[in-house]
Design goal:
Layout (H helix, E strand, L loop, with lengths): L1 H39 L34 H15 L8 E5 L4 E14 L2 E11 L4 E10 L6 E7 L5
Antiparallel strand pairs: 1-2, 2-3, 3-4, 4-5
Length: 165
């Protein structure tokens, strides 16, 4: 009888232990599945805009002008004008008027240095008068440009110029 009791007890202990192991396996599987769902969401991307929707132009932002002189100047126009400005404002230059033109857009202009170069905030600066012309009319501007030693000139300020009467 003692043997039967031992066998019954050992079967019961085995079943309890097996149930615990099965429960632990189920819990571990659930935990792994949950972790997969939570962490898997980090790699899923979804479009925010609706499918097939066109982008509406609201006009809340304006495109940045390429040239500080005029919004009419394109990239190539400004490249040519900037090169002429660099020659005209060069402190080692002769102070003569420098012309530029772009035959593709029919825009043209001049830069004339005004006065001597001056130092402002550790930059070499020089005032100028510029003309910008196209097919219609010529605009006259006055302003100043500065540059760190050995670098490119940047326009600091520019406004319409009125010829003295």
């Amino acid at each position: 009888m003692e043997r039967r009791v031992r066998q019954a007890l050992s079967r019961r202990v085995y079943r309890i232990a097996a149930a615990r192991v099965d429960g632990a396996r189920v819990a571990l599987a659930c935990l792994a599945g949950y972790a997969g769902l939570v962490l898997g969401g980090c790699s899923v991307t979804m479009p925010i805009t609706s499918i097939g929707a066109d982008r509406d132009v609201t006009g809340s932002t304006t495109p940045r002008s390429i040239s500080p002189l005029s919004p009419d100047l394109g990239t190539e126009d400004w490249r040519r004008a900037k090169a002429a400005m660099a020659v005209a404002l060069d402190p080692q230059g002769n102070g003569a008027v420098v012309n530029w033109d772009n035959p593709d857009t029919l825009l043209k202009g001049t830069f004339a240095p005004v006065g001597s170069p001056f130092v402002k905030n550790d930059l070499v600066c020089r005032a100028f008068i510029a003309s910008l012309g196209g097919q219609d009319e010529t605009k006259w501007l006055q302003g100043s440009a500065c540059r760190p030693s050995g670098e490119e000139w940047t326009v600091q300020d520019v406004k319409p110029w009125r010829k003295p009467a």
